[in-house]
Amino acid sequence: MVHPYLRGARTPRVLAHRGLVTPDAAAAGVVDNSFAAVAAAHAAGVEFVESDCHLTADGVVVLLHDDDLSRIAGDPRRVADLRLHELADLLADRGGLLTLEQALDAFPEVRFNLDVKADGAEEAVGRLVAPHAERVLLTSFSDERRLAALAAAERAGAPILPATSPGSRTLGRLLAALTVRSRRATDTALRGLDALQIPERHRRLRVLTPRLLDAAHAHDVEVHVWTVNDPEDMRRLRRAGVDGLVTDRADVALALSA
């Protein structure tokens, strides 16, 4: 069955990568994953926002991509070493810090695609998303973190498990199974997944192939490709049968879909 996270949304899916920061907004100092970036994506008509979860020193889940603040605030300190109020002060003039709890409450129409970035954040993420599981997808490069967050959501009383896409280990198993054409191993690798969120290529390896698309679709698993910002690439991938595009330019992708 199609997970409610995907049900009823227009296709191809447009997933706003860390929200939407237009060139004008970036020039004004707005950074990705900020309150302003998510608000801009929502205002543009985006249904899906991709974001990243870290844990502050005082145990609050915040939407930030990097381990530290070097890139977005010129501060080398780590997110895990800062308290919520310190982070809020640093990002006050950069679009505003956004916690996971705030994001889920402030944007009830948005479906969140959440990458659990930090060890130790799984329990808090799972607990927070449990009441919103029908509009959340949980993922991580670490399958251990991903599965731990799903388990935490279940323990917290989620009416259904959030949707999910695989970490690196599961994706590696799938690619190996497809290479040797093992139907049993392919079935196992795709079991329990709702989407494959992948790059088109990883170094010299082509990840997205017709065989992968066919296998995923045969198991009712969508394929979302990241990070796609060029309009011609967007058109080409849509023609290839990709179900969703993770993009920094959700405004451009939406315009192409209109």
Description:
By secondary structure, the protein is of the alpha/beta class. It is globular and about 55 Å long. A hairpin with a 2-residue loop joins strand 10 and strand 11. Helix 6 packs across helix 7 and helix 8 packs antiparallel against helix 9. The strands form 3 sheets. Strands 1, 2, 3, 6, 7, 8, 9, 12 and 13 form a 9-stranded mixed β-sheet that branches. The protein has a two-stranded antiparallel ribbon with strand order 4-5. The mean pLDDT is 97. The longest helix is centred in the middle third of the chain and has 13 residues. Helix content is 40%, strand content 20%. It comes from Microbacterium wangchenii. This is Glycerophosphodiester phosphodiesterase. Pfam families: GDPD.
Write a concise synopsis of the structure shown.
Residues 18-257 form the GP-PDE domain. By secondary structure, the chain is α/β, with parallel strands linked by helices.
Question: Which features does this protein show?
Answer:
two-stranded antiparallel ribbon; 13 strands; alpha/beta; globular; 258 residues; single chain
